[in-house]
Design brief:
The protein is mainly beta. The chain has one helix and 32 strands.
């Protein structure tokens, strides 16, 4: 190489709009990016194919405007889903679609959810958040959903199961009600009906003379994510007396089996139902309204509508969940989501803009009644986004930043971090290795760093103190649409 032809370019530090300018700075820098390999400036930019191996710009060859895009990798990168929202032809709506792999062929597009609402220019676009084997999708308008790579299902439980219908018993074998709802006395399996064929160790009720018996049942749904729905209301109470001198003496002092009908079928994604029952309530008086319920059985399907209960009281040991352990989905208008310490965090949407709900551990569909925060007790405005960072969940608000600390064992708590600095552009929040969390604030670009366990504290620093002219030109009314990568 001829050294005489060598040209050594001076290092360019960046833009400096303050006067006098620093050496190695520029007033205007256009059409340049940073080369990730060398850290230098590169002006080789332009339109490129999303899938380089395709002939056309698939999958966007015939699509209209794209409003959101998210690349989701699963199975250690073995499967990659490209999800995007494109405008629905002939309407002011969008269709959520995806393509798998790197081919991008137009025929490989699958519609996940059609006719979704387009957020306004001052609202953030759809938010995507991985949670285990699901991708949580929220936009503040349509029902939050979870996508498993094949289909999208509603997030959380929208309704409560209806109560079951217990049939009556026929303790004295009279069969005088004119209905099959007078059912059976539990017999020993395999033995014919007759004297000595009944077993005392299984079945419901007392076997002592003239004892009063009363029972009630509840039901819950189980989703494919393992989440348990809220409990149904109690069934009607079934009462009977232990017979000592019935029409057929062989029925005297026998336990009963109760036929449960109308088992409620769960919504799509339900894989099982759980049945709970009280122990013997005796006379079944109104004071038994607070009686404890115990787990009886799990029906591992969402098709059967009947069940015969003959499990005796002495076999019941596992208490049913409390009514506040799982409630109907509390964040139907969620705009932002985040995964932190095994729980799914969601904001309350436009109706509860300062409230944050979090799910039960590892169960994105199950929310307890008391598991939420309301940051509105402190100045800072509405919640504008969430971002999980090491041992903290960062809560961005209009003019403040707060941190969620703790875990599901010791409990979560919200602590103030800084006032006067906010972020309205949640999609500008990006984790940069060696730098920290970078985001577009209301008056420039900031970075959060530190916060590792061992005594380090989360700190904040403004990265653009010299861009005073550019910051004045920021259109704050549409900052929610800003994004970075």
């Amino acid at each position: 190489m001829d050294a005489r032809l060598k040209l050594e370019a001076p290092r360019l530090g960046g833009i400096d709009e303050l006067l006098p300018q620093k050496d190695e700075s520029a007033t205007i820098l256009e059409n340049f990016t940073v080369d990730p390999a060398t850290g230098g400036w590169d002006n080789r930019i332009g339109y490129e194919k999303f899938f380089p191996g395709t002939l056309l710009y698939q999958p966007f060859t015939t699509e209209k405007r794209i409003h959101s895009l998210y690349v989701w990798s699963t199975h250690n990168g073995a499967r990659t889903y490209h999800l995007f929202e494109s405008e629905n032809i002939g309407s002011q709506r969008v269709d959520l679609k995806f393509t798998v792999g790197n081919t991008g062929a137009g025929g490989g597009l699958v519609t996940v959810d059609a006719f979704r609402k387009i957020p306004t220019l001052n609202e953030p676009v759809t938010d995507y958040e991985p949670f285990g084997r699901y991708l949580i999708i929220v936009n503040g308008h349509d029902k939050p959903m979870k996508f498993d790579g094949d289909r999208a299902l509603p997030l959380g439980w929208e309704t409560v199961p209806a109560p079951v219908t217990p049939w009556g018993t026929d303790a004295d074998d009279l069969k005088d009600a004119g209905s099959f709802q007078n059912f059976i006395i539990q017999a020993v399996p395999g033995k014919s009906q007759g004297p000595g064929s009944f077993q005392q160790t299984i079945g419901l009720g007392y076997i002592e003379d003239n004892e009063k018996n009363a029972y009630r049942w509840k039901v819950s749904w189980i989703s494919e994510s393992g989440s348990e729905s809220p409990m149904s209301a109690p069934s009607e109470t079934i009462n009977w007396d232990t017979v000592t001198s019935g029409a057929t003496t062989e029925y005297d002092n026998k336990r009963q089996a109760v036929y449960l009908d109308d088992l409620p079928l769960g919504p799509p994604g339900t894989v099982a139902r759980r049945i709970y029952r009280t122990k013997n309530l005796g006379k079944g008086s109104s004071s038994d309204a607070t009686a404890a319920y115990y787990f009886i059985d799990e029906i591992k399907n969402n098709t059967e509508v009947s069940y015969v209960d003959y499990t005796p009281d002495q076999f019941l040991s596992t208490l049913a969940p409390d009514t506040v352990d799982s409630v109907t989905f509390p964040a139907s208008g969620a705009r932002f989501s985040a995964t932190f310490k095994g729980s799914l965090f969601l904001d309350g949407g436009q109706t509860n803009p300062t409230r944050i709900f979090y799910s039960n551990p590892l169960n994105p569909d199950s929310f307890s009644a008391s598991d939420y925060f309301d940051v509105g007790v402190r100045d800072g405005g509405d919640i504008t986004g969430m971002f999980s960072y090491y041992n903290s969940l960062i809560i961005f608000r209009e003019s403040s930043i707060e941190l969620v600390r703790g875990d599901n064992v010791k409990g979560f708590n919200v602590v103030p971090f800084i006032q006067g600095i906010g972020c309205s552009a949640i999609h500008s929040v990006t984790a940069v290795p060696g730098v920290g969390i970078v985001f577009l604030g209301n008056d420039g670009v900031y970075r959060l760093f530190g916060g590792l366990d061992g005594g380090s504290q989360v700190q904040i620093e403004k990265m653009t103190p010299n861009l005073v002219k550019t910051e004045k030109r920021i259109n704050k009314s549409v900052m929610a649409r800003a994004s970075a990568n």
